[in-house]
Amino acid sequence: MRALPGLRGLRGPPPALRLPLLLLCLLAGERRSWADRNTTASPLTSLPIPEVMMTTYSNLFLESHNLSLTEHSSVTVEKNVTLERPSAIELTCQFTTSGDVNSVNVTWKKGDEQLKNYHVRATGGILYTQYKFPIINSEQLGSYSCFFEEEKERRGTFNFGVPEVQGKNKPLITYVGDSVVLVCKCQHCAPLNWTWYSGNRSVQVPLDLHMNEKYAINGTSANETRLKIMQLSEDDKGSYWCHAVFQLGESQESVELVVISYLVPLKPFLGIVVEVILLVAIILFCEMHTQKKKMHTDDGKEFEQVEQLKSDDSNGIENNAPRHRKNEAMSQ
Known about the structure:
alpha+beta, 5-stranded mixed beta sheet, elongated, disordered N terminus
């Protein structure tokens, strides 16, 4: 039977091309199988997440910090760490126990947030745990804690922050019309920039140095700033804030300025002078009153003496009158 023209089967390739095509098919299948195996194995051969992060930020300065705790530690062991610039951080906590180290539960937290991808290993009766991470912005600053839970919970905490600025603790007192220099320092650090503000903690107004010749800022070194205020008035009193700007954030400190007039120091002296004047006046008044009273007493005595003399004289005259008459009678 003859097959219809439209229903003829497909003819195969010529015998000369069959072998090369078969080899190409085998190679394509092997390539697909190798790709599948490589894709499946890639998560197992990739680095853990912290290691990937540390590799990405390998150009950062490495900061390593350690804390040691024992089963007798009764309070939280803390360490304060200051950072000026982004850094790669390596934290290690060591816990020494006389019990079974395998029964100790180890965790890490940033504040109240549970952390992952930390390492734990034991050597004898000592348990080590390590956490690696980068700090590249201010949001990553804060407290990082390691916890060892046995019968009781032991805790070690690393507190990260930017360097602190130091100002004058006591109020600075000066006089109207004078000039004053306010100083802020940052020990063992070099801020990127310094800025000054006036006002309280909630409302701070930046000082306009370009439009106001009243203020001048200078510093002898990068870790120090000086604000000079000229022609002081009583309106200049209050709080002045210095801000140190770092790559990871800002640190601030206040300096309290008190401006008084020259009459203020004289007030205690004037008070003493007034008291002395009042005391002298009281003494003089008492003296005058005493003298006046004495004079009245003397006048009274003198009056009594005069009256007494008058009385004596009158008595003498009365006594002499009969005697005189008697003498006259005898002479007759």
